[in-house]
Design goal:
The complex is a heterotrimer of chains A (304), B (178) and C (349). By secondary structure, chain A is α/β, with parallel strands linked by helices. Chain A contains 7 helices and 11 strands. In chain A, 58% of the residues are buried. The mean pLDDT of chain A is 94. Chain B has one domain: Bacterial phosphonate metabolism protein PhnH (Rossmann fold, 3-Layer(aba) Sandwich), CATH 3.40.50. Chain B contains 4 helices and 10 strands. In chain B, the strands form 2 sheets. A 7-stranded mixed β-sheet of chain B has the order 1-9-8-5-4-2-3. In chain B, strands 7-6-10 form a 3-stranded antiparallel β-sheet, with no helix packed on it. Classes of the chains: A alpha/beta (304), B alpha/beta (178), C alpha+beta (349).
Chain lengths: 304, 178, 349
């Protein structure tokens, strides 16, 4: 054994920023995450050149999967041009040479914060969701050791109780985004702060979804064709945001998740939250030939 | 400003190998092409000095030690490269993790032959309905032993290798011998 | 009309970064050297929180971030994490530390003596405003001691253990590669001893002080007595692959032992970090002292204080709230409006 065996020629930066040992650890943990869907797997979560809480978990997964032929799309709150999406996209391209795209249909890897695109993802695409808080039980049990025990015991009674209390008090489940969902009938997970609108897109999907929380050092996954069922009571069905009937004031698209834009006169107008879908809808409306993918929602409704 | 780094041969191989493994484990039962045949590329992509490895085939021992991993007996191994398996009882020694930390269950690589031997039906996450696949080269009693050992979410995850093809069998997959 | 100014985001972030960097001006070797010489305690703090001992890199991190401390630590940690681990240094024992300062509040005098060393403890905190009027402040020179204190000192707890006053923790036989490294594996609870001490060593000084202070004020079970506080230099001994042990140099370290009466024996809390940082070590040792048997969810419970003193994670999460959250907000609004509409339709009985 010599020093030369232990090291390699000096380079200012490894391919994809992360060094080989960091990538191997992530690979090992991704395997476990896929094999036990919805179960939070602890990982070392190295520092990356971005602040914790800004997508460092998703970034580490993307940096491990990336290669020079992989086309990458990055979105934040549905928008490709959101400042942090732009920053992450620029970083991914800079450290990997991978081409970037805004079009969901063109992407091999999609890193997203808080949205799943409206066009159905294919089986050759991977969705990486950034996760601020991986623990669905946090609101009923802030202590992580106890929460882990509860997952181990499949002890979700307190979670159900919280939902029940909301129905009693407010007539409905008040959970906005991050709707707790049962994965493969065993582990309750947070789907990350995606709106309720997006949760059914994970159920029996064709694509693989990897969810990664860098600050909290947990990684979990939803493989293709895996049951993802929002926690609901038999007599109080799951309800997505009431956006099915709204129309985008810019593109004219109807039946998708919208951003509400408050107006000076006290009313609101709406625009499609999936920004690139909106762009394509405008271009199609203006007569361009645009490839529009099949969408999960049809006429504002998710087919059962 | 730093220039874009280029991927060396090791990085390219590890990246492509893992891409195939992730795909295979996400779609149990569907064979996937690896960039190279055999265990060494898998070892290089997954294993390093943070790992405890069992090598059933003596030829793999130098490959494992080169990565800096510690060679251990089967019950201590987080990665087990069993080679060709003749003794199903070996499965009894595999690490299955705990309810608290299912990730402590081992990743197991076994050589097999696809398209011959027992016909099995797979269901579970990653499988659209059910998939039937013929997997040979495994000892009698293999599937029964696997089923006994896995107490979901405790269990181990298998990668079956036939030359440059891999089939993933996560612990979440139910296997029915037809 | 374009849907959004598609590239607007990229231009905006590029320009905002330029605004920040323009204010710092050009960074060169001179500035880095100046920072290193003028602000050693700040450089120490950055090295400690980044778990990387390199004064030049730490000073560069400070220069690049304009002294925005959380950013400086992050940029240094992000550099550190990409570096290969070539080896593990030999164990450093207290008695082998080249000691500059070692004091004990537990005894009037201790074997080896009270060594004050460099400190502002007894200084009058007066601003030297004359400097601003053009009159440089030239500190008076130190008079060399006639009988210098010995450079190597035993620990005070060793004396207490010999007198059956304290049970020292069992000597940890884990060595070399087998030592758990919190930068290479996640912190899980109950925490490994190595993870606890490493986490405290790289914790954010202000956060450790806040929680340590809470414990000192009465939110902990144990009131600390500073058994010993030491500022020292540690020899880093590493082994060449050919088997030769050699010194890679010395690093500044600080460590604190705090004790309190626990039954008929003393309870012992310990902390150490890179660089000289007394407040952090005393606070961290106080938390360590209080951790045993602390109620779940209390400030002195290990899970609570280790998670919440992690400066890079805490500061990152804090500033992430500046990111747009309009999707989650929209989702909540929808539930609120619907619940409100229900109440109008079905008035409470």
């Amino acid at each position: 054994m010599s020093l030369a065996n232990l090291t390699k020629p000096w380079a200012p930066m490894s391919y994809g920023f992360l060094d080989a040992s960091a990538k191997r650890e992530l690979r090992r943990k991704m395997i476990k995450a896929v094999c036990v869907p919805g179960c939070q797997m602890p990982y070392a979560s190295r520092e990356v050149p971005m602040a914790r809480g800004w997508g460092t978990g998703g970034l580490q997964v993307s940096l491990t999967l990336i290669n020079p032929a992989m086309r990458v799309k990055v979105i934040d709150q549905g928008a490709d041009d959101s400042v942090n999406a732009a920053s992450i996209r620029r970083f991914l391209a800079r450290v990997s040479g991978a081409p970037t795209t805004l079009d969901t249909l063109d992407a091999d890897l999609i890193q997203s914060r808080h949205r799943i695109p409206e066009e159905i993802l294919r089986e050759d695409q991977v969705l990486v969701l950034q996760v601020p808080n991986p623990e669905p039980l946090r609101s009923v049990q802030p202590n992580m050791s106890i929460a882990r025990q509860m997952h181990g015991d499949a002890d979700y009674g307190r979670m159900w109780l919280q939902l029940y209390e909301q129905i009693v008090r407010s007539g409905r489940v008040m959970q906005g985004a991050s709707y707790p969902s049962m994965v493969n009938g065993r582990h309750v997970m947070t789907p990350s702060p995606i709106p309720r609108w997006d949760v059914p897109k994970l159920h029996m999907a064709r694509h693989l979804t990897i969810l990664s929380a860098g600050r909290e050092k947990r990684i979990f996954a939803v493989p293709p064709y895996t049951r993802v069922e929002p926690l609901v009571f038999d007599d109080v069905p799951y309800r997505v945001e009431d956006h099915g009937g709204l129309t985008c004031y810019r593109s004219g698209a109807t039946g998708f998740f919208m951003n509400e834009i408050p107006q000076g006169d006290g009313t609101s107008t709406y625009e499609v939250s999936d920004s690139e879908y909106g762009v394509k809808a405008i271009r199609a409306r203006d007569g361009e030939v645009v490839a529009m993918g099949e969408t999960w929602y049809k006429d504002g409704k998710m087919p059962q | 400003m730093l220039t874009t780094p280029t991927a060396d041969a090791a990085e390219r191989s590890a990246n492509a190998t893992f891409d195939a493994l992730l795909w295979a484990l996400s779609r149990p039962g569907l064979p996937r092409q690896l960039p190279q045949a055999g265990e060494p590329a898998l070892i290089a992509a997954l294993v390093d000095r943070e790992c405890h490895v069992y090598a059933g085939d003596p030829l793999l021992i130098p490959v494992v030690t080169q990565c800096g991993a510690k060679l251990v007996d089967l019950p201590q191994a987080d990665h087990a490269f069993l080679g060709g398996l003749t003794e199903p009882e070996l499965l009894r020694q595999l690490r299955c993790g705990s309810d608290l930390y299912p990730d402590d269950g081992a990743t197991v690589v076994i050589r097999a032959r696809f398209g011959t031997g027992a016909q099995v039906r797979l269901t579970g996450p990653g499988v659209n309905g059910a998939v039937d696949v013929q997997i040979g080269g495994l000892p009698d009693g293999f599937w029964a032993r696997r089923a006994e050992m896995i107490r979901y979410p405790m269990g181990f995850d298998m990668l079956l290798l036939d030359a440059a093809q891999v089939i993933g069998l996560p612990r979440s997959t139910k296997v029915e011998v037809l | 009309m374009a849907y959004v100014a598609t590239r607007g985001g990229e231009r905006a972030i590029a320009q905002s970064e330029r605004l920040f960097r323009e204010a710092m001006g050009q960074i060169d070797m001179t500035r880095v050297a100046e920072l290193k010489a003028a602000l050693p305690y700040l450089v120490d703090r950055v090295m400690g929180e980044a778990s990387l001992y390199d004064e030049d890199l730490a000073a560069l991190a400070l220069a690049q971030t304009g002294g925005e401390l959380y950013e400086a630590v992050l940029v240094l940690r992000a550099w550190r994490t990409t570096q290969p681990r070539l080896g593990v240094g030999a164990v450093v024992e207290q008695g082998t530390l080249f000691t500059h300062r070692r004091i004990s509040a537990a005894f009037k005098d201790i074997p080896g003596g009270q060594v004050l060393g460099p400190t502002l403890d007894y200084s009058h905190r007066v601003l030297e405003t004359d400097v601003l009027a053009g009159k440089p402040f030239a500190p008076p020179l130190v008079d060399p001691a006639t009988a210098p204190a010995p450079a190597y000192q035993p620990s005070v707890s060793a004396w207490q253990a010999a007198n059956d006053l304290v049970d020292l923790p069992l000597s940890d036989k884990v060595a070399g590669e087998a030592i758990a490294d919190v930068t290479r594996e996640p912190l899980l609870f109950p925490s490994k001893r190595a993870h606890t001490l490493q986490s405290l060593a790289r914790a954010e000084t202000g956060s450790v002080l806040a929680l340590g202070y809470a414990a000192m004020r009465g939110y902990g079970q144990a009131h600390p007595t500073v058994n010993e506080l030491r500022l020292a230099e540690a020899e880093v001994m590493v082994k060449h692959p050919n088997g030769t042990a050699f010194s890679a140099g010395r690093v500044k370290v600080s460590q604190a032992e705090v004790v309190s009466k626990q039954g008929e024996k003393l309870g012992l809390g310990f902390a150490a970090t890179f660089g000289w940082n007394e407040v952090k070590c005393i606070s961290a040792a106080t938390l360590d002292l209080n951790a045993k048997g602390a109620p779940k969810g209390s400030a002195t419970e290990e899970e609570f204080f280790l998670y919440h003193t992690e400066g890079v994670e805490a500061s990152g999460f804090c500033i992430h709230f500046k990111l747009p959250h309009y999707v989650t907000f929209q989702s909540s609004l929808d539930a609120m409006r619907d619940a409100k509409a229900k109440q109008v339709k079905e008035p409470a009985e």
